[in-house]
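Many introductory courses stop at the sequence. We go one step further.
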Amino acid sequence: MALAAPDHTAARGGRPEVAAPAVTYALIAVNTLVFLLGPAAGLNPLYGTGPARVCAEQRYEQRWGAVPAELLTGRPLTAEQLTEAPDPVPGCPAAPTPGKHPALSALTGLFVHAGWLHLLGNLLFLHVFGPTVERRLGRARYAVFYLAAGSLATYGFALAEAHSPDCTRVLIGASGAISAVLGAYLRFHPRARVTTLVPLLFFLPLRFPAWLVLGLWFALQWWSVHSAGPGVAYLVHVIGFSAGFLYTCTVVRHPPRRPG
């Protein structure tokens, strides 16, 4: 797990020449607010408690999350299709979403998370790597990059799952967009030192170059695509990371190296 990455913005007198990463902070705030107001946090009394909240969470994710079958057809799932969806919550009747816009759900799904660990894990990586990428791209381009890469990863996953039984499973979370941020960071600063917790060494904090940390992370996601079971859309991570890296390789000009 990555803990801290240095800020590589040029500085004068110990102060950065550009403003704070407002877009990254805004994304963290919006993700947190959406989660706290939704049923998964368990803090909003409007969704009830116990089984009622669990059913509300299923309906909430179906309403705002991205579903591959919906993205490819452009139509919300019917009640019959929802009944046949994998891993239904027992005792919760299917609730169609006739007013849902599937194309828009590729964006709204980026701000919906299934639990505290899901949310905090994503925001940790965004907080560590997002500011540097934002300063390199600029606020406006970074915001478009984040949303576009997340949507691209979602649609790429939908195409891969077009003929799979999981094509009606809901996809939520910001990991596709954040993976693109990791790919961009690797392109910009492959030799930057990243502090990392190593589980095999009792979570001892060690510093490794970014190319090693992020390279191993990408390899783990790629391996998990073919070996892990349902529950985590590892392919979204792979597509997002690749999109972020390739975008910065082909579109963003890398500044010349300075002597020393």
